[in-house]
TrEMBL record:
Residues 1-35 are annotated as: Disordered. The gene is Vent1_0. InterPro entries: HD, HD_metazoa, Homeobox_CS, Homeobox_TF, Homeodomain-like_sf. It is found in: Nucleus. One of its GO terms (cellular component) is nucleus. Residues 28-87 bind DNA. It comes from Bombycilla garrulus (Bohemian waxwing). Residues 26-86 form the Homeobox domain. GO terms for molecular function: DNA binding; DNA-binding transcription factor activity, RNA polymerase II-specific. It comes from the Eukaryota. Belongs to the BAR homeobox family. The keyword Nucleus applies. This is VENT1 protein. Pfam families: Homeodomain (PF00046).
Length: 87
């Protein structure tokens, strides 16, 4: 039961051949992170309290969730964009 926490993922929006298209011309894209439901829940709770994380909070949250700081940073950026679209 792993998900990124975004509805669009379950909508079947996979692109046919997207991995093969960019793979032959240099760097391959990093695989999409599948967040566990516990990770998403903790990220959402943290997001409700504060929309932006400082370096210290990001480091602590990354350690607690066993994710990289970049994954935490990217998740928060994407979540803020999702909130912006909803508003």
């Amino acid at each position: 039961d792993e998900s990124s926490g975004y509805e669009s993922e379950s909508a079947g929006g996979e692109r046919a051949g997207s991995a093969a298209a960019g793979g032959s011309r240099g760097r391959q894209r990093r695989a999409r992170t599948a967040f566990t439901s516990e990770q998403v829940c903790r990220l959402e709770k943290t997001f409700q309290r504060q929309k932006y994380l400082g370096a210290t909070e990001r480091r602590k949250l990354a350690a607690a969730l066993q994710l990289s700081e970049i994954q935490i940073k990217t998740w928060f950026q994407n979540r803020r964009m999702k909130l912006k679209r909803q508003i």
